[in-house]
């Protein structure tokens, strides 16, 4: 386990451009091409659906399931279920007491379409919380792939969180998988340090630019004699043409340019290149649920030595 490079590709199946539009063109039109890439490259991954995305796009869910990839959950309506890391106009975090109901309802909606209970979860924007993790534990989730390494910067490998503080190690059964970031660079973003993050570098600057971050992370982890786990997050809307602005209701939404830059064919091209570059390193690709089983076997064996 420690000698290998482990890759988890996660796709957050949500409305186009996150919470900024009500459309599902990405889920409708990019699921098939992405699955084709997965099959051509002989890899597997996890597709995290909001409850609403699953209900409105059952064909997408079936395609993921029937291709042998994992269907997970991504909240109910791409709401902020966890602790807010930075403010977004009009997006108000759920109260802690609301979280268990919303996650349970999201799970029910995905399960209705999937035909079985999902066991992997990711919070929108990687904004999780202690309330979220405890709610997932109660619902017997195996994985939460929400920890933003760029922000908390403490957990470098998967861990079992504490029921009192989800960012600390504890004795919960659920496995928290951090989303990797470049921990060697000097950040120019004091406080948030989002420039350490891997998203959306693969399409804004290209796969090779992202691989520079990957190589830095690998060296960093091996110097510490730690397993290398690269958890990525992507979105289906990144793989279709995206407008610079969207008008609906009583307003026009114009996302920051990095959010829409090079979406569509360029993103798909760079994504394929990223897979090839990771394969050149001998990386192993996992579904989140399968990785949790593998990690449990590894940590159990380590505890015996």
Automatic annotation (TrEMBL):
Highest rank taxon of the organism: Bacteria
Chain ranges passing through the membrane: none
InterPro entries per UniProt: Glyco_hydro/deAcase_b/a-brl, NODB_dom
Location of the NodB homology domain: 15-229
PROSITE patterns linked: NODB (PS51677)
UniProt protein name: Polysaccharide deacetylase family protein
Biological source species: Cohnella soli
